[in-house]
Design goal:
The chain is mainly α. Helix content is 60%, strand content 0%. Helix 1 (5-13) crosses helix 2 (23-37) and helix 6 (100-110) crosses helix 7. It is flat and about 95 Å long. The protein starts with a helix and ends with a helix. 2% of the residues are buried.
Amino acid sequence: ALYNRATLDEAATCERKTAVPTFADISRVLGLAAQARLPANVRMGYTRPQWHSLPAEQPMTAEERKQALQVTAALKGELRAKGCGAKIEDVRPEPRYLTPLQLALAARKSGAIMRPDWALALSEHEANDQAR
């Protein structure tokens, strides 16, 4: 419905940099035509639907706060009894680092590029093996 003689004439006579109207020229003209067909209140800007407001949240009473603290303490006690209260530092093992020789042997086995310090450790190891 938007592609009619009026929009065709508008696209053909609009200011442009090329001799033939481009897709951008035509889509701009059709977009303006579509916008002109919208009702005035929609053209002026979209207004979101109006929702009913939620009731204001009431602060907890002293009784409710006391009850919530008791429930939280009871849950924490259950978790500690099951062993779930351990800190991550208590569970995490100490890191084990590979030596340059171990890294060099792994690089040789996989065919990966070997760092110079690994190659030095490997050559020292092989020299020690040959001396024995």
